[in-house]
Specification:
single chain; alpha/beta; Aspartate Aminotransferase, domain 2; Aspartate Aminotransferase, domain 1; 3 domains; seven-stranded mixed β-sheet; three-stranded antiparallel β-sheet; 17 helices
């Protein structure tokens, strides 16, 4: 941990200590003698830290744990994090600030009034946020959910009965499987082509196979736009068209798209759009979005009709598949606070893809390194194969595959799968051009250190400090 990062956290924790004294003495902050002493002691330490930061002269004070074995997490402050599933979930400044204020459990319920439902709350403007979410993904209605998986579950439980077939891709996420299993359905996988892509033609063939074998059409098609295995783009437009021709509902899985690139569900031809807040919308986990058309809203967002047999109790307009309210407190507020920047960043998706390809151009200069995903890239999530480059070093290195993690960490880079030097994934989303350049040079530098051949770039050399 860098000393500057440590001091920032020290200062934040001191402010929280002072805040705790204020909380304990509410409503008038009537400090006792001991309260005043504690408050002033904290204030003095805070002033000292501010002075250290101003002068860049520091006293060392190691802070490893926040409390009870929970380590201080500083990888976003001290490193370039290329973890495949963390990149686009990194909180915005606004979300981090909002989380400080709204971290208490049911903080979003301060102004909950009739009809007592999350998407009807005016203060903070949660009702407006739901409308904005629907518009953002080009659909009619939307709900926030505890992760994309709960969006899958809500749709599947609404549409699927025991024995029904659901079409998924051969590399669909395990949570899609579980959603189908939970409803008693049966998964039927659409095969990949030689490029590890799902096509419309393959979907037609699978539909016909299911129809022939079960005498019924599939009840739902769920497809990732970009999958989690390779980050490859699948033909969602073509497959949505096929689904429409067969009159089969189509669920667009935007876990790796909603929040980082433009998504228009109706333009795609989707009946349902599911996104992940913590994966692609700069939000606290678990968070996500489920959006649909007016045609399907009454089914997937159906309200409870249950009546208690003794008490006669009813629960108004609570939605069954949502189990009433979904995201309360910090998760939802972080999603809302990040939303303006999330909307803006989707307009610059092409730049993110360019940066991904720029990095890989340099990464591939290390002889033996390969990109397993489709290339040139259309996404920032990429699967690579370094069996013929860095894995050759690992075979004789005393640290085996962990040598690469060690070398990257020395250069301020984390997020690779520790110990893996054969096939692994990385994500460059959200990185600046300078960081992209630094990343590429870092892998070049490691290769040269261990005498792995490096091909020259167009200028005939690589430059830059790592």
């Amino acid at each position: 941990m860098s000393i500057k990062t440590q001091k920032i956290f020290e200062a934040e924790f001191l402010l929280e200590d002072m805040r705790e004294i204020i909380r304990k003495t509410s409503p008038h902050s009537a400090f006792s003698k001991d309260d005043k002493i504690q408050f002033n002691e904290k204030l003095k330490k805070l002033s000292e830290i501010v002075e250290e930061l101003r002068t860049n002269k520091y006293t060392e004070l190691k802070i490893k744990y926040i409390t009870n074995g929970i380590e201080l997490r500083t990888r976003e402050e001290d490193f370039i994090n290329i973890h495949p599933i963390q990149a686009a979930g990194r909180l915005t400044l606004e979300a981090r600030k909002a989380l400080i204020s709204y971290g208490d459990g049911y903080s979003t319920c301060d102004w909950c009034r009739k009809p007592f439902r999350l998407d009807k709350i005016h203060r903070p403007p949660i009702d407006e946020f739901h409308s904005e979410l629907a518009e953002f993904v080009g659909m009619d209605q939307a709900r926030v959910v505890p992760g994309a998986r709960r969006g899958f579950q809500a749709v599947v439980s609404s549409l699927i009965e025991k024995g029904d077939s659901v079409l998924l891709s051969a590399i669909s996420h395990y949570t899609e499987f579980l959603a189908v299993e939970d409803s008693g359905g049966t998964v039927k996988e659409i095969p990949l082509n030689e490029k590890n892509i799902v096509t419309a033609d393959a979907t037609v063939q699978k539909i016909e196979d299911v129809k022939k074998n079960t005498k019924k059409l599939p009840k739902l098609i769920m497809l990732d736009h970009f999958d989690y295995m390779f980050g490859n783009e699948h033909d969602v437009y073509g497959i949505a068209k096929v689904a429409n021709e067969y009159d089969i509902p189509f669920l667009y899985n935007g876990a790796y798209t909603v929040g980082i690139m433009p998504v228009d569900g109706k333009k795609i031809g989707a009946d349902f759009v599911v996104g992940s807040g913590h994966k692609s919308m700069a939000s606290v986990a678990p968070s996500g979005v489920l959006a649909t058309t007016d045609e399907w809203a009454s089914k997937v967002f159906r309200t409870t009709q249950m009546v208690g047999d003794i008490t006669g109790r009813k629960f108004g307009i609570k939605e069954v598949e949502m189990l009433g309210c979904t995201l309360m407190g910090g998760t939802l507020i972080s999603m809302m606070a990040s939303f303006p920047k999330v909307v803006e960043r989707t307009k610059h998706w092409d730049d993110e893809v360019k940066k991904s390809n720029q990095f890989l151009d340099e990464f591939l200069a290390v002889e033996g390194s390969k990109v397993i995903s489709e290339y040139p890239r259309k996404h920032t999530l990429t699967k690579v194969n370094t069996t013929e480059s860095f894995d050759k070093i690992a075979k004789t290195h005393k640290r085996r595959g962990f040598f690469l993690s060690d070398e990257l960490r020395k250069r301020g880079i984390v997020g690779e799968f520790a110990g893996s030097t054969r096939t692994w994934k990385l994500n460059t989303y959200g990185r600046t051009w300078d960081q992209i350049k630094y990343l590429g040079h870092a892998f070049i530098d490691i290769a040269e250190k261990y005498d792995v051949p490096v091909k020259a770039n167009k200028q005939g050399q690589y430059s830059g400090d790592v």
